[in-house]
Design goal:
Layout (H helix, E strand, L loop, with lengths): L3 E4 L2 E7 L1 H5 L4 E4 L4 E4 L5 H20 L5 H17 L1 H8 L20
Parallel strand pairs: 2-4
Antiparallel strand pairs: 1-2, 3-4
Helix pairs in contact: 2-3
The structure holds zinc ion.
The site of zinc ion has 3 residues, from helix 2.
């Protein structure tokens, strides 16, 4: 279990909390405490997506961006999907080891289709 995350330069604690369940949520972003709380009863398969959602909530809050919750949900769920489907690439990106692909230079631009 991750216990801390650095988000835009601030350390946030990550923990489970029964009160999240009591409030009927899977996760909560508590900006004044720099805390993200997750439901302890949530399925393991949901944890990554919910954590990423709360990270988005923290970023939006820290930046003072006004973003409808439905759009935030769509963005966080989509990014989570891309990260899960491309785990190796995201591991390389986070380690600053993303290989640079050399594309051949175009010597001339085709002017007509065959
Ligand atoms: Zn939310």
């Amino acid at each position: 279990m991750i216990s801390q995350l650095k988000i835009l330069g601030l350390w946030w604690s990550i923990s489970t909390s029964e009160s999240v369940d009591t409030n009927g949520n899977l996760g909560e972003m508590r900006s004044t405490k720099l805390q993200i709380a997750l439901s302890p009863s949530m399925a393991v398969a949901q944890q990554g997506e919910v954590l990423l959602h709360e990270i988005f909530e923290a970023i939006v809050c820290q930046l003072g961006i006004k973003l409808e919750h439905s759009k935030l949900q769509a963005l966080s769920a989509s990014l989570h999907q891309v990260m899960v489907d491309n785990a190796e690439a995201f591991s390389a990106i986070s380690a600053n080891e993303m290989p640079i692909v050399q594309l051949p230079l175009l010597t001339s631009i085709p002017t007509s289709l065959p």
